[in-house]
Amino acid sequence: MLSVQQITGGYAGAPVVKNISFEVEKGELFGILGPNGSGKTTILKMLSGILPYKSGDILIKGKNLSQYTPKELAKIIAVLPQHSSQAFSYTVKETVSLGRYAHQKGWFQSWSSEDEATVNRVMEQTGISQFQDFDIQQLSGGERQRVFLAQALAQEPEILLLDEPTNHLDLSYQKELLDLLSVWSKDCGLTVISIFHDLNLAGLYCDRLLLLENGEVNINHVPNEVLKEGRIREVYRTKIEKLPHPRVPAPQMVLVPERSQAESQSEKRVDPASLEVKENLLVLRSPFPLKTMSSGVTGSGTGWNRIFLNRHVSKNYDCSDHRAEMAEFVRNIGFEPGETVGMMTAVYVEDYSSKFCEEETFSVYVVVTAGVGNAVDASKSEVHSHHLTPGTINTWVFVNGNLTEEAFIQCIMTATEAKTRALHDQQVKDSVTGTIATGTSTDSILIAATQQGENLEYAGTITPLGKVIGKGVYECTVMAIQNSQRRIKK
Ligand SMILES: Nc1ncnc2c1ncn2[C@@H]1O[C@H](COP(=O)(O)OP(=O)(O)OP(=O)(O)O)[C@@H](O)[C@H]1O
């Protein structure tokens, strides 16, 4: 549909864009990215024919751009510029109608029923029909942006060029506009070429991205290849991190703010002084949010949490809506479920066992409650019926250190292996299979790290961190099992 071949040019003086080549297929949603001043708008102006280039070629549907008359070009390409403005006082409908000029025939440019239908349709699609008789000067920036988009669509172009179309739009209109562009490109074959400052929106919606750096192509590829942490940090000269989107396979980049000197120097940590043992409840309050990976009833998955609860519930606790009940419980005792990892157990939490272990550059605090009435041998669990009862071994591991994602996962593995060994040594049996149990049916685990201080890349069993976790979880699990068994005997 569009082929840009080694174009170089700009304004007076040194060229702004240098030797740029790329192709855009019919129906593609193609994003142009790059820092301020990298030449994005300059390229868009060249594509729309308003800025000549010094060398190279731009082919549209196989024909050189210079061979099109302005009116022919307007039937193929519509442009939504960055700062749309209008000197005259027109109504919204009049402004949108101006988009039809390329389709009008003869000297008298008569307005056809097709023109009328198209204008009404695009006003509907962009959600501006209700403003059609308003003076455009009366509208907000976002509403005006939608009017100019409607004007571009009224041209019924094959190629739509957009310069930061989501500028001025609130969150829901940003999504709505990009959803529309996506539908128009996929279902109607509209080719969309758009400049984006928001890398995440570009990554979510575009088929391919062109990243510019100082007027040159850094990369032209699919979003996952373009939005690489190292590349974006280098081109934009800023600290960012890449995360997976929670719902769709698109990369998301997040800015990492610089920490103030006071923050990075403060020596805050989690240790035994952070734990409160209340009746039927263990509460650990961290002085600041910790990065967590857990299978708690509240706060499960990954997140940042400040409050950690291990709550005793009776053996007959009704598990039918345990998440809602637990969230209510958390609220009732004055905490916010959104910043709390909450677990339940049928054992008495006063029988917990804990261990604080301080190494040279990091420290680990392990807290375990363990009852084994519900013990299961995972290798034979298929013979068990599915029956949810409150978890009986809850393992908390707090790390005063900075963990990678990999280390978080390895912490879970190491802690689980240590727990299993503790059950083995305590000869805890699965009552259904009669074999040694590996855990209980609803155990929970929490790994929480301060993300300050020493970088801890790994936590496998023979790494410095893994060794501390393995020993700590093993000893605490043994002790907690013995504590709860002692109580049962009494
Ligand atoms: N009309 C102009 N005359 C002279 N130089 C210009 C003109 N317009 C832009 N430039 C220069 O060309 C370079 C690229 O500008 P361009 O607008 O293409 O960048 P951009 O990538 O779109 O930036 P932004 O993200 O800030 O919109 C800049 O250094 C700018 O100063």
UniProtKB/TrEMBL annotation:
Keywords from the UniProt entry: ATP-binding, Nucleotide-binding, Translocase, Transport
Pfam families: ABC_tran, CbiZ
Key word Magnesium present: no
Molecular function terms, GO-annotated: ATP binding; ATP hydrolysis activity
InterPro entries noted in UniProt: AAA+_ATPase, ABC_transporter-like_ATP-bd, ABC_transporter-like_CS, AdoCbi_amidolase, P-loop_NTPase
Protein origin, superkingdom: Bacteria
ABC transporter domain location: 2-239
PROSITE patterns assigned: ABC_TRANSPORTER_1, ABC_TRANSPORTER_2
Coiled-coil zones: none
Protein name: Iron complex transport system ATP-binding protein
